[in-house]
Design goal:
- The structure is a single chain.
- The protein is built from 14 helices and no strands.
- Helix 3 packs antiparallel against helix 7 and helix 3 packs across helix 8.
- Helix content is 75%, strand content 0%.
- The protein is mostly helical.
- The radius of gyration is 19 Å and the shape is globular.
Length: 322
């Protein structure tokens, strides 16, 4: 796992860690489904402009994989983001962020079930160690607090499953650039979110936001669109292709730690157990980096296995710095 390649998923998860408190503040003025739809309609427009400028109209073709793209976009964009926003209405940002730390384990299990690729024992073990660290950060060593998640926790289980399938799906399109995969799945996800939001508005489950409400949350929306939905997802998909889904997913353990750091900046004071948990999570990530790097150095003949594990990627404009 080269440091340069690791920078992509690292940037993504740090951006998403900040996103939870940002979205929580916006949800006080705009309903969850409408906020999600507005965010991804804008993000998709930006992604489409980038894709057309970089790869041309031909890149909009799904190569007879439209159904798969639609399913992955629905799971990864519509599913994860809609369920996360709904969950934020039932639990604190740092509690919801804890569930993001289960993505590494779930992604490896999805990959095992779909491709028959057993998780590497070292990476699987380090994922669990990092998850323990995150648990200490969020619960302050009192695991009984996990039982209070209720509806928010159930919604986040669905969100995590959706993101795990989306992350795994990125490795199944090695011939597409990360920008193309991100954009086409975002289009599918945005359409699904618009449909769900329209149904909710028409049935009275939520109310279309007033113009004043959208103006009030413009700063949060700008961050959620440009940073968390455009640059971060491009960076994430680039990292998945360069490192493989299992290695990249390990970085998700930093999401709740980042969210917790934001809460500290807002005045919260952590205890010793929480600080120990953050240190444990970071140590697990560093160890995973070293394990993967050593494995890459020792591999000589089985290059084919390495290619299957870490598909090549055409570097996107992504790099726009997300």
């Amino acid at each position: 796992m080269r440091t340069r390649n690791a920078a992509f998923p690292l940037f993504a998860v740090l951006s998403w860690g900040v996103m939870f408190p940002v979205l929580a503040s916006a949800l006080t003025r705009v309903d969850a489904l409408n906020l999600t739809a507005a965010r991804y309609v804008l993000a998709t427009a930006v992604l489409l402009a980038l894709l057309l400028a970089r790869e041309g109209v031909a890149s909009l073709a799904t190569d007879r994989r439209g159904l798969e793209v639609l399913l992955l976009g629905g799971l990864g964009f519509a599913g994860f983001n809609t369920l996360t926003n709904l969950a934020l209405g039932h639990a604190a940002p740092q509690q919801i962020a804890l569930f993001a730390a289960t993505v590494p384990v779930v992604t490896q299990l999805v990959r095992w079930a779909r491709d028959g690729v057993r998780p590497r024992p070292a990476l699987f073990g380090l994922s669990l160690v990092a998850l323990v660290g995150v648990g200490l950060v969020i619960t302050r060593g009192r695991l009984d607090g996990l039982g209070e998640f209720g509806v928010g926790g159930l919604l986040m289980i669905g969100a995590v499953l959706g993101w795990a399938f989306y992350t795994h799906g990125a490795s199944r399109f090695p011939e597409w650039s990360a920008l193309r995969y991100t954009t086409l799945t975002a289009v599918a996800g945005a359409l699904a979110m618009l449909a769900a939001s329209a149904v909710a508005d028409l049935t009275g489950l939520q109310h279309a936001p007033a113009a004043a409400a959208l103006v009030a949350v413009a700063p949060q929306l700008a961050y959620a669109v440009l940073v968390a939905a455009v640059v971060a997802v491009l960076a994430w998909n680039t990292g998945v292709r360069r490192l493989g889904p299992a290695d990249a997913a390990l970085f998700m353990n930093l999401v709740p730690v980042t969210t917790f750091a934001v809460q500290i900046a807002r005045g919260y004071r952590p205890g010793a157990v929480e600080l120990a948990g953050a240190a444990l999570t970071i140590a697990a990530l560093v160890a995973a980096n070293l394990v993967t790097r050593n494995r890459s150095v020792t591999l000589t003949a089985p290059v084919v296995a390495a290619v299957v594990d870490h598909p090549a990627v055409v570097e996107p404009v992504a790099v726009v710095g997300r």
